[in-house]
Amino acid sequence: MIDDWILRVEQLSKHFGPTCPNCHRLTGPDTGRSQCPRCGTVWACVEANLQLNAGEVLGIVGESGSGKSTLLQMIYLALRPDSGHIWYRDNGGPPCDLTTLDRYEARLFRNTKLGIVYQRPELGLNMRFSVGGNVAEKLLLAEWRHFGRIRTRTAELMVKTELPPERIDDEPPTFSGGMLQRVQIAKALASRPSLLLLDEITSGLDVSVQARVLDLLRRIQWEDRITMLLVSHDLGVVRQLARRTIVMKNGHIVEAGLTDQILEDPQHPYTQLLVSSAL
Ligand SMILES: Nc1ncnc2c1ncn2[C@@H]1O[C@H](COP(=O)(O)OP(=O)(O)OP(=O)(O)O)[C@@H](O)[C@H]1O
Questions:
Q1: pTM higher than 0.90, yes or no?
Q2: Ligand 1 centroid distance, CA of 11 (Å)
Q3: Which residue's alpha carbon is nearest to atom 3 within ligand 1?
């Protein structure tokens, strides 16, 4: 099981700004800052390491600005890291460093092997396309060419994500908030990705709607054994899905371990604060 990894992130870093010799001393969890007060550089993600095993859900928690989305966007190959590696392997095959892919290879990888769902549906969906059009967009980018098969796959995905298939030609603005998240999930799953990235997908939803989306993800994970990376500022959400969790603060991973253990016996003072505020 230990060796059953599909994604391994090594020393991954990203900053925004010019940098100066004081940056490292003046930023990070000990200082409570991500932004260097001398030169203004934001250290969004610093030397992050993580491993995702096939079929598991890994949670990433941390306050706003701690670097969760930056880390996710680098893994989604939408943001180039400054340094570090993102190793990927299929079924125990030879590892490939995704940071070495050119733009065309990265786009194809993203469209075939990865799916992403955002907090804001307009980031994941084309709001002027119908549900069918959105799923077709993803599948065409993954090099599906047969219209009939695309249509059948869309109807299948709508059933899977508990959307009425007769609404296949309706546009996103006519759906409710919870339904929009399910449309995003349908689109993200279209090409049967190996890894599903979830960025604050239940934030802003009513508690009952949130519970239904989380139930759906739990069922999908159980049925398809799909590997998921779940980003949330809410430990309560992560606890429901993720067996392991990493905690980020000011661009750094400050704690990692089994979610239950983190909740019961948090080690880092910041995690202790997170846990006490979640209780
Ligand atoms: N393109 C950018 N240019 C400059 N700074 C950026 C850019 N993208 C992110 N940042 C900064 O990097 C830091 C980490 O941001 P990030 O969005 O990764 O945090 P987060 O933990 O996902 O927060 P949130 O939950 O609010 O999205 C923040 O200080 C943010 O302002």
A1: yes
A2: 18
A3: 16
